[in-house]
Amino acid sequence: MKTKVTAKIKSVIARDKKVMLTTTRSSYPFVVEKGNGSRVFDVSGNEFIDFSSFISVYNLGVNANEQIRTAVKNQADKLMHAAFTDFYSELPVTFAEKLIRKFPKGFGRVFLSNSGTEANEAAIKFSRLFTKRQYTLSFYNAFHGRTMGSLSLTASKAAQREHFGPFNNTVHVPYAYCYRCPFGKEYPSCGMECVDYIRKYPLSKEVSPKEVSAIFIEPIQGEGGYIVPPKEFIKGVREIATNNGMLLVSDEVQSGYMRTGKFLALDSFGVEADIYTMAKAIAGGLPMGATITRSSLGDIPAGSHANTFGGNLVSAAAANASIDYLNENKSKIDGEIRSKSSVIFKRLNSMKERYELIGDVRGIGLMIGVELVRNKKSKEPAVNEREAILSRCFENGLILLPAGVSTIRIIPPITISMEDLKKGLDILEESITSAESSLPK
Ligand SMILES: Cc1ncc(COP(=O)(O)O)c(C=O)c1O
What we know:
Layout: H1 7-19, E1 32-36, E2 39-42, E3 47-50, H2 53-56, H3 66-78, H4 90-101, E4 107-113, H5 116-131, E5 135-139, H6 148-153, E6 170-173, H7 193-200, H8 202-206, E7 212-217, H9 231-243, E8 247-251, E9 275-278, E10 289-294, H10 313-328, H11 330-354, E11 358-364, E12 367-372, H12 383-395, E13 398-399, E14 401-403, E15 407-410, H13 418-436
Parallel strand pairs: 3-13, 5-6, 5-7, 7-8, 8-9
Antiparallel strand pairs: 1-2, 2-3, 4-10, 9-10, 11-12, 12-15, 14-15
Helix pairs in contact: 3-10, 4-10, 11-13, 12-13
The structure holds pyridoxal-5'-phosphate (PLP).
Residues 115-117, 120, 143-145, 218, 222-223, 251, 253-254, 279 line the site of pyridoxal-5'-phosphate.
């Protein structure tokens, strides 16, 4: 059934525009009311299949997990806020213990906050504290958040930084975006020039490696375009950090928590970081950020970092219920990610053969990007076509998000039914067919 944009929908959007400061809203009029699993409904009863997990938050289904909902309700009746950085309470500690067990050996300390950006702010401060160095290094197309510290690392779109400087001391370097190699090379014959570049230029001519506290990296770039680097890239970056006494911070805010089929996305690259940051999915739909450090880095001095709401008891109850669910259903979840990922890749790769618009299909597990181009040879980004596809999908009952300049993210809840997954892919293909017909012949 076609989505009906009713007077109610228009009225909520008009009221929003009057009182809310503008953010990054999608181009289509989605006024959400409720959701269950991979189906979501707007205020006028329009029904959609969800391929967004509401920005990689509802990995276990949109509001669908009964264990999480029950834990939230029970805790709300008992006590919601416990000033966890001032007083002690058990639930956040229990969660930290369970979280650490999902990490490589040697990870033993957690700081809890409320969002991805806050988890990264903490990682910036801790890296400075642990190394007594001031600079950070991050990548073009990176997105680490929008508060001043994390925004210093973010370099995805200039509009996100315009008027907000000056920033922290950060050096940005190219990421291994092989579909559009910044060095004009082809992988693997490139010899990983992007890794050499970091040593040869920024770390030789701009900043002494002795002054860099940490390299921040997304194992798969998210907001910047769902960019998957070769393993050698991440290994090369790890080596630079290790050889120069810098810490490696893996931002798993979007890619972590089973999105790629592993708890940590970095695990797919065969290296370990020194600090990990997580948020989005970890409390099943409630706000929570976590910064997890290697035990050998030690503790931070009392009074140097804290917050009001970190370790909030309702969020902690949800996080415990969510991680328990993951642990109890591990093999089922692993299997679901594998089979659904394979269905999506098969379908998208076959579409890539048939549509000029599909330039690249990439991803790991259920973190998949489709980069759209107006011409496969010139790789001209299909910016307007991407918007048209997202809007047409919305009209036909599918929620999708953009990434980068002309990429579509496919990040359904892990628990989506095979039937909904295939229906969603049908809607996507129909929209691509329609957009393709408007390309110049
Ligand atoms: C990789 C990554 N890091 C950090 C953030 C910021 O998280 P938040 O919006 O919760 O502050 C995001 C958000 O999209 C992200 O994708």
